[in-house]
Fold each of these.
Amino acid sequence: MDQPISAPVQRFILTHVVARLATSGQDGQPHVIPFCYAFDGERFYFVVDEKPKRHTGKPLKRVRNILENPQVALVIDDYVEDWTQLAYVLVSGTAALVEDENEYARVLELLRERYAQYRLMDLTFARNPMVRITPTKIHAWGKVA
């Protein structure tokens, strides 16, 4: 991304705890899920954690999609009945699995700082894939500041 992320947008990102991730595989079928994330000031991350998931013997749909098509989008939003207070940050970007153990360890600490539940999970580089999303475009709308 050519432009740095503004301070108000960074604050909005860091004060929210859930976003929605949109992926699609080679078939082009959209797949949208809520997810917990870390943001290091430049990139977004999530880890495949130990919450109950349907076990099919294959990687999760979002991970399979990212491996087939790394183009993703995520949205962080506020909805309130007073529509003058609506806001969102929409991020388009490229996703990839984290392959560096040092990066994995650094980001796992960020995730554990944000989510107490992760402090109780035995998340490891070998067992729990982590995904990095590098923004290519960020669009902020509404009461983001």
Amino acid sequence: MSDESQICPKCNSPYGYLDGALWVCPECAHEWTLEKVEAKAEIVTGPKFLDSNGVQLQSGDTVRTIKDLKVGGETLKSGTKVKGIRLLDDPVDGHDISCKIDGHGSMYLKCSVVRKDS
């Protein structure tokens, strides 16, 4: 009886019940359909990979670092160009970009420390 459709999307009450084609919340009297809940879930998730300026990133994009980054004893300077990034669905220690940087090799970066290169 722990169906997610029973949870009210308005007040999060777990006591929703099916009444014909609608789900009804006995606590706040909100009525909803499964289609509305699924559509709202898609909207809430939104774009996953945003750079430091809020611009959507895609695999293959070219980005630049926005600040100096310490990489194994060396410093990756602000403004370093990174070509052909690969976005990771499963982040590695909070890093969601896999890339190769000339002179530094393969590494992971966070979307928050890069900006999309125009």
